[in-house]
Amino acid sequence: MSVDPNLLDDLEWRGLLAHTTDRDALRAALSEGSVRFYVGFDPTAPSLHMGNLVQLVTARRLQAAGHTPFALVGGATGMIGDPKEAGERMLNSLDTVKDWTERVRAQVEPFLSFEGGNAATMVNNYDWTSTLSTIDFLREIGKHFPVNRMLARDVVRSRLEAGISYTEFSYVLLQSMDFLQLFRQHGVTLQFGGSDQWGNLTGGVELIRRADGGKAHAFATPLVTKADGTKYGKTEGGALWLDPGMLSTYAFHQFWLNAEDEKIGELLRTFTFLTREELDALEARHAEKPFLREAQKVLADEVTTLVHGEAETAQAKAAAEALFGGGDITTLSSDTLAAALTEAGAIDLDAGGGIPGVIDLLTLTGLATSKGEARRTVAEGGVYVNNVRIEDADHVPSSSDLVAGSWLVLRRGKKRFAGVRMR
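The line above is the sequence of Tyrosine--tRNA ligase; the predicted structure tokens follow.
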């Protein structure tokens, strides 16, 4: 199968190469023919997140360039989890991990093609780990890992004083064994992952060399951070989840729409499949007129469509346009409206007590701090219910005003809005 000889240059231009093993050897391998590569995803949560998305789009780039993906969902390694910088991970039950494995697998599959000469293959390391005896594991895998090198890993070093269990300490052996297994059974010679995985990636390369005298390659993508260098979110909370049940498509689209100007070029190169020429032109237009936020709009549309599809992206955009006064709220689906308003701030009221007047609604939702302020805002023409300006401070919405059967959308000015759900 023919391959794209410019793949490594493209990855480098996009900023996707934080570390590599022998760069010249990797370039030669990627230029000679279709390389079998793997990338792994541990089901330590019920959904993948922004950090995993970097690996998903990178795998897609490699497959589009003619290489052959093996996507590994770690039913075994997910039982343990890679060591964190602070504290031990909670160990989840086998049933929980099995459920999360299936959910993660379903999220990975749409990013790859399972047809053609370089069709993708899904694998689960539980299949070859669950029947392995402790004696065999220690003899066949453990003997190849010098403890001093394991202790030198940054995350291990940082945990030594507070304490790290042997379970997490030995994670690198399990991930390295995955690379050896795929090397032996499927001829996989390349693994990649995030830069926080570099010790695990090189551990697998070294295990293949020590155990089988084989040659393998690895590269790591950089961690995506904000302009101030901090992370976008932690896996325990606040993460940019890919599952719309954990983070609505509206909130997902809004995240990208609010990207910092300083990071917009990097995010476009990392997460979209626009060409270099397209991105250069877009960034030039953005630099000239950043207030138009064209680059953020393209980023939000491209990534949301990639993850959630065109129809959901259209709904998210329609919701934003309607909520900010530029569209018809009544055209939104109940789910989209609920997701958007819940994200913005919403309250539930008992429908049995009737719908309050607009002044009470403004204070109940926090759009006004007092009834006096609410009345002044109405008098100034700054209050809207369902995008209709309210001119009478004594106005009381009726049941016919409820959107999707239960919602009122209140807005103060151009950008402050809240939802009220009558139950």
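Note on the example: The CA atoms of residues 60 and 111 lie 6 Å apart. The longest helix spans residues 171-186.
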